[in-house]
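can u do me a favor
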């Protein structure tokens, strides 16, 4: 089965991990600092590494002080964790519809959803295409809300010449194997606000505080620490950070290959009937995590099943979050975000990853053509 996404691991990656295993540190050592510094250069903002992308979202919401009674506006066209981690903290999630073409959070829908209880606005860079952050920033500032970017798909992307990582108050990344780079499991939180970043660092480190300047008791000794707020053990170990630093050295190559593959899809699928291709806005330079097409005419399930039967691992990204029983049981109803639901009804992700060969991509293209032209 040709997968829709897959990691690229080289001998250099293996050597980096092996060196970490042979060192004195397996977790929370020098490789963590190295990876966070390497990541900062790409993201454009200081970063704190965490154990996965879901942990990154949970940490970002916690750093923003989200809790019971707060409202968080976000998109339904995402993996459930973008909303679920806010729900875990006791917040009420308000789903705003997406733009019809990009499937990103629609600023107009966000503006209509703002209330006096709005504490955060969380956008998702769907498929690697950044959301409209300049417009979202104006809305967030007007509402005195924290702007959060779920950039799990988008490390390496830029918006109006600015790197993802600098566009929101807090930005989260995921380094799952199918993402643009991998640490096996892993994630990160970025922020240009030192106070928010420090809150994120403390939360991911079980809430431990050691800085003498902020301890309530300073006479116990150099071993002393305090837990002043709740936190969780979301640390990313040295072994995985070593893999991440090695992967970051090839991020430019990863982006170039994904761009070339996306361009080939654009060229060779342009005239296929019943098929709508993804858009890229002029002011965006995306690192494509997904290549999401839309299968029109009510044929998405048929195409999905026939592509899978042909050994091509297409995928659907994503089920509208409020369709899940977790949110149905909280009173959310289908029909509330029509653009998102229309997108979901047609969406299909084609294989896209660094090691996808032109020959394998040609097989994807020809198989899809055959199905849709029959």
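np, heres the sequence
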């Amino acid at each position: 089965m040709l997968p829709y996404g897959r990691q690229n691991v080289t001998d250099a990656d293996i050597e980096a991990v092996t060196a970490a295993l042979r060192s004195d540190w397996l977790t929370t050592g020098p490789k963590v600092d190295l990876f966070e510094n390497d990541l900062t250069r790409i993201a454009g903002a200081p970063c704190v590494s965490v154990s996965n992308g879901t942990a990154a979202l949970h940490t970002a919401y916690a750093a923003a002080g989200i809790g019971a009674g707060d409202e968080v506006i976000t998109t339904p066209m995402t993996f459930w964790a973008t909303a679920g981690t806010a729900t875990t903290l006791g917040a009420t999630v308000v789903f705003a519809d997406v733009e019809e073409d990009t499937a990103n959070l629609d600023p107009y829908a966000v503006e209509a959803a703002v209330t006096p209880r709005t504490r955060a606005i969380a956008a998702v860079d769907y498929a690697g295409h950044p959301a409209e952050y300049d417009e979202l920033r104006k809305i967030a500032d007007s509402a005195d809300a924290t702007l959060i970017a779920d950039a799990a798909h988008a490390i390496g992307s830029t918006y109006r010449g600015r790197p993802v990582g600098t566009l929101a108050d807090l930005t989260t990344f995921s380094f799952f194997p199918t993402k643009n780079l991998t640490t096996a499991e892993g994630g990160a939180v970025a922020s240009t606000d030192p106070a928010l970043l420090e809150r994120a660092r403390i939360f991911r480190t079980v809430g431990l505080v050691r800085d003498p300047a902020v301890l309530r008791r300073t006479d116990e000794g150099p071993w002393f620490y305090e837990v002043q707020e709740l936190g969780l053990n979301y640390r990313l170990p040295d072994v995985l950070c070593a893999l991440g630093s090695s992967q970051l050295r090839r991020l430019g190559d990863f982006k170039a290959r994904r761009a070339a593959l996306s361009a080939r899809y654009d060229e060779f699928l342009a005239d296929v009937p019943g098929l709508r291709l993804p858009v890229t806005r002029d002011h965006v330079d995306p690192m494509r995590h997904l290549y999401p097409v839309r299968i029109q005419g009510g044929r998405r399930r048929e195409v999905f099943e026939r592509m899978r039967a042909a050994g091509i691992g297409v995928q659907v990204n994503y089920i509208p979050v409020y369709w899940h029983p977790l949110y149905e049981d909280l009173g959310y109803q289908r029909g509330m975000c029509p653009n998102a639901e229309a997108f979901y009804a047609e969406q299909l992700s084609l294989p896209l990853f660094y090691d996808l060969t032109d020959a394998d991509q040609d097989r994807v293209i020809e198989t899809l053509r055959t199905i849709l032209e029959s």
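The longest strand covers residues 118-124. hope that helps!!
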